[in-house]
Amino acid sequence: MTQTEKALSKPVQLDIDPFSIAALGDPYPLYRAMREAGPVHYSSRYDCYFVVRHDDVQRVLGEWRTFSSAAGVGLANFNKERPWRPPSIVLEADPPLHTRTRTVLARTMTPGVVRQLRETFEREAELLIDRMLDMGAFDGIADFAEIYPTKVFPDAVGLPAKGRENLLPYGSMVFNSFGPRNALTEAAFANADAVRGWIMANCARDALSKDGLGAMIYAAVDAGEVSEDEAGMLVRSFLSAGVDTTVNAFGNMLWCLATFPDQWRKLRENPGLARNAFEESLRFEGPAQCFFRTTMDDVEVGGVQIGANEKICCFMASANRDPRRWNNPDTFDIERKVVGHMGFGTGIHGCVGQPIARLEGEAVFAALARKAGTIELAGEPVRQYNNVLRAFASLPVRVTRK
Ligand code: 4IA
Question: Under CATH, to which class is 3-401 assigned?
Answer without folding.
Answer: mainly alpha
